[in-house]
Design goal:
Helix content: 40-55%
Number of strands: 10
Largest sheet: 4 strands, mixed
Structural class: alpha+beta
Radius of gyration: 18 Å
Shape: globular
Distance between the termini: 33 Å
Strand order of the largest sheet: 3-2-10-9
Strand content: 5-15%
Number of helices: 9
């Protein structure tokens, strides 16, 4: 609903708030990440990943404005991770379930919408799904400890074959539904979602924030 074109000034405000400010926090406020950023690349569970320096041009304002110029605005969920999709499988209960006074859809519904995104493009919601399916966000949340030795980062990470299969289907859907430029924008929004969560992770636990830093580097590299 409320479909409308994106505008350059809002895009600039989005980039300033969600990219530049968060990159500064990531690089300066976490001593473990600061040390890792002294290297050109790190090894995360044996995977070689360039550090943020490698992506300077990719994250410049002018480039991001160009990428997001293909977006449009509408009403969005704002935090559409896999965790916020509730599936109903018991048909005997489905018709009786309500949420905030509204009859729910037949087989699923969304919870915990988020406002304050500034750039209210549906591509943000697709990017959030990528954060789950491509970046394994929910599984990184399960990590309890991380070992850092020089530029080597190691932690126990569980992965899901179901997530991998759904990601392949989702990627195929995006490519069939949207233009190349629009798919690129969706993947860039995933990157920005990772940037947005980093300050909170750093405040909560500087060392464990490195796990999500490697997640950010992974999606940038991919």
């Amino acid at each position: 609903r409320n479909a409308r074109p994106a505008d350059t000034e809002t895009i600039k405000s989005y980039i300033k708030s969600k990219v530049g400010k968060n990159l500064k926090i990531i690089r300066e406020n976490d001593r473990f990440i600061r040390q890792l950023e002294e290297y050109d690349e790190i090894s995360a569970n044996g995977i070689r990943l360039p550090t943020l320096h490698f992506y300077t041009d990719m994250l410049k304002d002018d480039h991001l404005i160009q990428v997001f110029s293909h977006d449009s605005y509408s009403d969005i969920h704002g935090d559409l991770t896999i965790e916020n999709i509730v599936c109903l499988t018991d048909s005997s209960e489905i018709d009786r379930r309500e949420y905030e006074g509204k009859v729910l859809p037949k087989d699923y519904y969304f919870i915990d919408p988020n406002t304050g995104n500034i750039h209210d493009s549906p591509f943000l919601d697709y990017g959030k799904l990528l954060q789950s399916l491509h970046g394994n966000y929910e599984f990184l949340m399960m990590v309890k400890s991380v070992k850092i030795d020089g530029n080597n980062v190691n932690y126990l990470l569980t992965k899901s074959e179901s997530y991998a299969e759904i990601y392949q289907r989702f990627r195929a859907y995006l490519r069939s539904r949207f233009s190349r430029e629009e798919v690129l924008s969706i993947y860039y929004h995933e990157i920005i979602h990772w940037l947005r969560l980093m300050p909170y992770k750093i405040r909560k636990n500087e060392k464990l924030a490195v796990v999500f830093y490697t997640g950010l580097l992974y999606v940038l590299h991919d």
